[in-house]
Amino acid sequence: AKIIQAPVFHAHCLSIFAELEAPLEVSAVEEALRGDRVAVLGPEEVPAAPVDVAGRDDIVVGPVLRDQKRPAAFWLWTVVDNLRLTARTAVDIAETLAA
User: Fold this and answer.
1) Based on CB atoms within 10 Å of each CB, which residue in 17, 22, 53, 91 is the most buried?
2) CB 17 within 8 Å of CB 4
C-alpha cells in the first residue's frame, strides 16, 4: 500500500493505494473497512472534505474505487478530524487503563 497524507484545516486527508493478493468486489472491501469508528461512503456519494468531518469522531473513507489497470488494487480517499481523533484515542486509552 502507498499513502499520501496531507494535513489540512484540522484534518488529515489520506489518499491510499492498496493492492490485494486477489481481486475482490468493491462491496467486500467496503464491508471490511466499515466499523464502529469508520464510515464508508458509497459509490454515489461525494468524497468527504476536511470541513465535512470537522467535529466527527469517525474516520470517513470513500468512495472505494477500483484501480483501472489493476483489478486487485483500490484507491481509498480517507478524511478524519485529527483533533477529535486524538482526543477520542486518549479517552479510549484512559478507559482501557481504568478498567
Assistant:
1) 53
2) no
Q: Please tell me the pTM assigned to this model.
A: 0.82
Which helix (H) or strand (E) covers residue 66, if one does? strand 65-66
Which run of H or of E encompasses 19?
A: strand 11-19
Count helices and strands in the chain by DSSP H and E runs: 3, 6
Residue 99: per-residue pLDDT: 84
CA–CA separation, 32 vs 10, rounded Å?
27
Mean pLDDT of the 43-70 span: 94
> What pLDDT sits at residue 19?
97
Contact criterion met (CB below 8 Å) for 53 and 79: yes
What does the alpha-carbon distance between residue 91 and residue 75 come to, in Å, rounded to a whole number?
A: 31
Separation CA 23–CA 20 (nearest Å):
7
